[in-house]
Amino acid sequence: MILFICFLAARALDMIVEKNEYKVHSIYYLFFIFGGLFTIVYSLIHFNLDNRIVKQLIALFTIISLLFVCYFFILKSFHKFKGKVSIVGILVIFIVVELSSFSYLTVNKNRTLLNKEILNQKQGYNDYTVDAWNYIKNNDKEAYRIDKTYDSIFLNDSLMQGYAGVKGYNSLNHPSYIEFLKTLEVPFKRRNHLNYLTGLDSRRELYALLSVKYIFDKENIAPDKLNLINKTGDVSIWESKYYLPFGYTYDTVIDYEDFIKLPSYEKDAALMNAFVMDKGQEESGDFSEFYRKGLTFKKVNLLDKVSKIVNAQQDNLNVVEGISLRAENIDPQIVVAFDNLLSTRTSNISITVDSPSDTELQIFWAKGFQFKEVNSKKINIKKGEGTYQVQLDNVDFDSIRIDPTNEKKDVKVIKAELSYVEFDMDEFLKDSKKLSEESLQLDRFTNDYIRGNINVKNDKMLFLSIPYDVGWKARVNGIDVPIKKINIGFMGIPLEGGNHTIEVSYDPPFLKLGLYTSFATSILLLIWFFFSRKKRGL
């Protein structure tokens, strides 16, 4: 596509400058058609039609097209001049303006030039993350994937700092990984856009499933259920005891259609017990009793745990009938405290409010009463009595704040209940140990070749937490075997009981076809060039 456009552009300029011909509108029409189709197809594949990115792409193509038309007519207006200097001069001016515009951001806009002093300051990509990762590599040969609670520069830190992570910033993020995140309902927190993969949303099960063994942190805040093993500079290194090694095995399967019906917190638990075949595959298994294993459902009356009332006076003292507030400020608050930290997979707050007019209710959750706007949700409240629901996924908290109105008015909170699923970490530990009992022992691991040995007692599915791609090929004991797409976007290799040597290698899809096509195109261009010169008598 790129070579074709370049060829058309070169041909058009040759006709304008050398032959003073301007009947090249068909070439420009062809460019508009190719460019327009490319923009539309790319937008349909990667974005929703209502997405602002699509509108920006269409606007960009329109602007470029209009500039192209203007450029053509400017050149055409100079045909009355016999010399070529005017046309070439115009071309030079356009090229200078274009290069100056596009290079401005690179040269002048907050770009730091590397030097010895900058490197010694441990900033950006050369911060203490590099030292922390080197420490891990020197002390743990089995470590495969890590995550960070911070960005050294941006979401593509892993690419620049040389580790395998779970975040990414790329216009070509792997579709299989995106499919996994979307199906598991992991939020795209930054701009809600597929180019910005912001990680696993602190979901412990997903960290384990993707073999994330270490978490790097700069705030020195202990992530739940992790152990501090070292600190390099301002980076703390935390280790998870629920880590699953790269290349663990399943002996139970769940149908795709049954899996996608589960809520997000049950999907996480399900993957700790069984693998999911890709949709349309005929493998199946009885999973009716598995996917709620280790989950406990609880319900709490929040009005029984009220710690204090802020910016309001409480009229009634009987919380069974609800709490009537006489607001003294525009922000009356009901603060609820729990005896210990709640680690929840999903929480639902049901609140019944009687308001004299339309207003806005806001609910905060926090650790240690540190309430922030980022950890809150707002609901529009209608006049009169009504019940409203707020769902919180994968959050830990020991306090909740209910702001029943954002105005100075009397309001009554009739009922407030918290329903949540408490995750049993002991059960989780048992599941992770079971999966890792028979795992791959690696003796070589590169970006495009993996080799190791495994011994399984019975038929099992070997899970590799590498996004599924048709370029990957597998050999078991020297025999080619098909790679299955399992767990919504990753690779699985079926194994029979016994000892096995596993080899997995990657060949870029269509590489050979691309090379053959490029070679054939080059030959055709040389032939065309030879005959065109011969026709001109050169």
UniProtKB/TrEMBL annotation:
Transmembrane segments: 28-45, 57-75, 87-107, 513-531
Keywords, comma-separated and alphabetical: Membrane, Transmembrane, Transmembrane helix
Entry annotated with the keyword Protein transport: no
Domain of life: Bacteria
InterPro entries: Uncharacterised_YfhO
Protein name: YfhO family protein
Protein species of origin: Paenibacillus woosongensis
